[in-house]
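User: Here's a chain of 385 residues. Predict its fold as tokens.
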Amino acid sequence: MKRVAVLGSTGSIGVQSLDVIRLHPELLTCVALGLGRNIELAEKQAREFSPKLVAVYDEEAANALRVRLSDTRIRVVSGMEGLLQMATLPEADIVVTGIVGMIGIRPTVAAIEAGKDIALANKETCVCAGHLILPLAAEKGVQILPVDSEHSAIFQALQGRAGSKIRRIILTASGGPFRGKKLAELQNVTAKEALAHPTWSMGPKITIDSASLVNKGLEVMEARWLFDVPPEKIEVLVQPQSLIHSAVEYEDGSILAQLGPSDMRIPIQYALTYPLHLPSPATPLDFRALSGLTFEQPDVETFEGLPLAYEALRIGGSMPTVFNAANEWANAVFRRGGIPFPAIYDILKEEMGRHTRIANPSVDEIFAVQEEIDAHCREKYGFTL
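Assistant: Prediction complete.
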């Protein structure tokens, strides 16, 4: 029996993680939940799974959930301290880091230090702190098992390579809802249009990032750390059907690709049940029903989030944190209707241009960079996140 703590339980990854746990009660049990403020859903989850602890980041929401669960033995804690307690719970074997944003960094670090395996969905952890996280995991003997569909596909393609050398990693992208459009056509698109992803069901932040190709840039950064490959060996290829989730090419020309339905429960389950492939809730892929698989080069002139991510990764140090923090701000303000879609790229370029690189930032320095960028954006654009 593997005991699972789910950080971000009320979000897309968290809900689907609980779907997987529900399907395999003989193998998986949920011992802790962590969330922001959605106590309506959290109460239902807590009553179904009876975890030992629920951590609610929002203090007021935590107080309300305590009242709702007062007839149970479930302990409710709050704030960042509560998330850290949840991530280091002695009864947990593995922590699903399904929370979105840089808020996930400290709990992930704490979980690794406590010897927990990590089912990693919080890409900001690798983007901003990969230089800290991966050595720490190696030191503690902790497994980091990727949950993103692309990184799970790469991870699966690397199994059993027995020392074979990689020529390149092929990271696939759907192209998002604006695939084929040019920059001028994106000037007046709305958040509703950007959230209409053609193949995946994801949370709003990641869906907007997919539309801008920023998400693929973040995944390039994540792949660099997870698989210890330089950026020049990571190639992005648009695969509009979202059925080939990524591939690895070896030096002999062999390419191993992972295919499957566009269902996040497959990579989530593989991270939780590794190394086993077990029955999943996903609808099996029927090759007879496929009309074809197509491939395209990404339009990096229109979707500047991808080349800017490569630039931030090559500069290194604190620059990926700048890229991520500026995007978190721009993404949120675009969703509120405060800026046009192409302004996301303008903000990324401006903040990267203003920044003086820190070569090897600590966790505290990473958050100081984020706070500085947030303050500058608030002052310039008049929005508060």
